[in-house]
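In this supplementary section we document a worked example of the pipeline. Step one takes a protein sequence of length 493 as its only input; no multiple sequence alignment statistics are reported here. Step two produces a three-dimensional model, which step three serialises into structure tokens for compact storage. The input and output of this example are shown verbatim.
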Amino acid sequence: MNNWIDHRRSAVLLHITSLPGPFHKGVLGEEARSFIDSLVAGGFSVWQFLPLGPTHGHGSPYESLSTFAGNPELIDLRECISGGWLDADMLKGDISSDMHEVLRGKASEAFWNSIGNNAELQQAVEGFRHANACWLDDYALFATLKTVFHDGAWWQWPVALRDRDPEAIKNITTDYPQLIRKTIFEQFVFFRQWHNLKAYAEEKGVQLFGDLPIYVAHDSADVWANRASFTVNEIGLCNEVAGVPPDYFSKTGQRWGNPLYHWETMQADNFAWWVRRVRHQLELMHMLRIDHFRALEAFWVIPGESEDGIIGEWRKAPGQALLSTLQQELGHLPLIAEDLGIITEEVTALREAFGLPGMKILQFAFGGDDNNPYLPGNFAEDAVVYTGTHDNDTTMGWFNSADEAVRQHALRVLDATADDMPWALIECALASPAILAVIPMQDLLELGTEAKFNTPGTLDNNWSWRMSSLPEHDAGCWQKAARLNHKHGRIMA
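The serialised model returned by step three reads:
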């Protein structure tokens, strides 16, 4: 087993955007630090969240404008007051998404106007730009062009910019320096706040558990700047796209629409982009989930014109070579494989060859026979168990809408009554052999389907659930969790 974790631990799954606070979504400020304190009070020592990149308008963190950049909407603008870049009066009342954007622009302008008088800050910014130049320069240009062309996709830009003509790029840097500086400011502040949050978590004994989407968005700086590595044609469109065939999440499969990788091209330069990508994420996280891990063994290829995932074919990927290279370049790999969906013996063999734990979802455990792999008696220590994930209904929503046979089977296995839910399933996860147990915050709050975070294969009404307030550290949910974490050996003595 890969030594990705040192002892039995438990985690809470809560995306940053779901934190309460005065902004249009949760940010990397005092509420995040208070949540870490709450985790400790509840006996949890891991915080899992979704990808951190800047999102498109639909808000999915799995469709990011950059696999390297941080989402500027997560910046706590209150910290800009102490820097002298915003006045406190500007942050009175609730701050909408549009106002957050405007205030970031004002803070950026004040930041760059003042930086000449602060040698320490100037040195920090220069160091940040140098350390991240491999992605930051392209992303700053990309974000600027998205603004200039009113959020148009990069393949819809003028041909010279679509194809990154050097003279056209030079003109953009000359014509829009303020927009480029704004993006650099946002990224500098985001990563400074993130590393401060990480240091706070480490001080409290809490590890951060991140998420790496297997693919990147078509309309992203990554594809625009590295077209040779992705399946886009001469005008930037995809003849084939990523997704999955029909499974228990969707009867028609899922057409994600991401470009696929030109694996031969990537392997020819020893997977340099992947090494940079994973190294960057592991500098931010203590452990990292690889979303849709099975695509590293074989991936589903969907014709570009298809509207769903029914029609397609499997093709092999060089997962063994990629993971070997990552191990050689980065050493210890604290990676968790999201191995849900259609999993073959070859996928399991690849995961096990590198000692990567897989995922077990308790909501999938009931209604079948005793051989169901999600039943706690059928999986071992080297696993990460969830009551449900961000793609599932909440435990209460799932239980209340499940077939009666599923409900009765669950209650028999859990030795519980309906009134014991969701805590009976929570305790089942914590009591299981899995070395890491993950509980969504919605389950700790005993919420129903109204708090569901995402419905796979859909674009509307997702990613928006948010806590109105954070339960006090001595609230019942934390006290109950602490007792169960202690009972089942998930708190270090």
